[in-house]
């Protein structure tokens, strides 16, 4: 059984999706710690309610970003995770820590990367006139939202959408996307190779795509 540490800054809906999948027997893993930069994050309450260790580390308590990152990851490493999942974690991670955990840390981002990196992705998509939007799970690198993309879920942009309605539609697909991608990682089927993401040892030519049955399939 794989050990997962989760980083979250907010409400923790993706964390809850992972907890529900584990409880329902569809994800063979254990969440061994939830870590946040915000002591008031609801994700920490969800962790405590599930009997999971919840740790808050405030950046302002440290003299530098590097000192904060070093402390945060020392706490993460204490729980000995096989996989680190950034699920709504809103801070950039330092290159030193990212490199130390290469291939073992993923992030879920609300856009079809490489489009619309950073914040306010739904507003970016609407401003660009995109007709398809979605979410991506990718390996974390030191580049903002720039690591190799593992899998994506697509949603249509509808006439009359605003940022709130589009965000809600994307979030509905984010949860099964993260669970499905995490399952492949925990099963050892997805790995990070020298030239990109591999599925069952074969380099993927494009990110996996979530189908209507919440399964990830290869695209060409």
Automatic annotation (TrEMBL):
The keyword Transferase applies. Pfam families: Formyl_trans_N (PF00551). The keyword Membrane does not apply. Keywords: Purine biosynthesis, Transferase. The record marks 145 as: Raises pKa of active site His. Coiled coil: none annotated. (6R)-10-formyltetrahydrofolate binds at residues 65, 90-93, 107. The active site is at 109 (proton donor). One of its GO terms (molecular function) is phosphoribosylglycinamide formyltransferase activity. It is an enzyme of class 2 (transferase). N(1)-(5-phospho-beta-D-ribosyl)glycinamide binds at residues 12-14. Its EC number is 2.1.2.2. Residues 3-181 form the Formyl transferase N-terminal domain. Pathway: Purine metabolism; IMP biosynthesis via de novo pathway; N(2)-formyl-N(1)-(5-phospho-D-ribosyl)glycinamide from N(1)-(5-phospho-D-ribosyl)glycinamide (10-formyl THF route): step 1/1. It comes from the Bacteria. It catalyses: N(1)-(5-phospho-beta-D-ribosyl)glycinamide + (6R)-10-formyltetrahydrofolate = N(2)-formyl-N(1)-(5-phospho-beta-D-ribosyl)glycinamide + (6S)-5,6,7,8-tetrahydrofolate + H(+). Catalyzes the transfer of a formyl group from 10-formyltetrahydrofolate to 5-phospho-ribosyl-glycinamide (GAR), producing 5-phospho-ribosyl-N-formylglycinamide (FGAR) and tetrahydrofolate. Belongs to the GART family. This is Phosphoribosylglycinamide formyltransferase. It comes from Lysobacter koreensis. The lineage of its organism: Bacteria, Pseudomonadati, Pseudomonadota, Gammaproteobacteria, Lysobacterales.
